[in-house]
Amino acid sequence: MSGAHTDGAWHVEDPMGDGVEDDLWIVVGDQAHNWRCLALVSCDVEKGPVPKPVYRPQRDANARLITAAPDLLAALLEAHRALNFYEWYNNPASGWASEDNTTVRGVVDAAIAKATGGAA
Q1: 105-118 b/e with 16+ CB inside 10 Å = b?
Q2: What's the pLDDT score for residue 48?
Q3: Domain of life of the organism in this record (predicted)?
Q4: 56-102: pLDDT as tens digits
Q5: Is 70 strand, coil or helix?
């Protein structure tokens, strides 16, 4: 078993198909009978007091962000590759090794490490 994420296009599905139920599924697979459920994204029913409720618009935004994760990771890996190339290609006197560029690289590397469970 690999530590890599599940390949394929991730997308959001409403398993009940009514747009009202509390859970959305993050799945891979092109048809319902082929879905592999990767995650459930829930919201709180609007009954009774909940200290920090997650309502449907937030749930939907969370689901969209999760489904974008593989594409975001791929973009970060490409940015990491480009930063390494430009750092190598440009000498420090060119201004590439500025504090801003070092900060950007640190943010990119930290996000990759968080997503992969390791170093960038």
Answers
A1: beebbebbeebeee
A2: 64
A3: Bacteria
A4: 888 899 999 999 999 999 999 999 998 887 766 666 666 555 666 77
A5: helix
C-beta contacts of 111-119 below 8 A and 24+ residues apart: 111/76, 112/73, 112/76, 112/77, 112/80, 115/69, 115/72, 115/73, 115/76, 116/3, 116/73, 117/3
Where exactly are the structural domains of the chain? 10-116
pLDDT given at position 1: 39
What is the DSSP secondary structure assignment for residue 67, as one 8-state letter? H
The amino acid at residue 92 is P
Query: What 8-state DSSP symbol labels residue 110?
Result: H
Residues contacting 96, CB < 8 A, separation 6+:
86, 87, 90
Q: What token pair was written down for 57? A: 């618009």
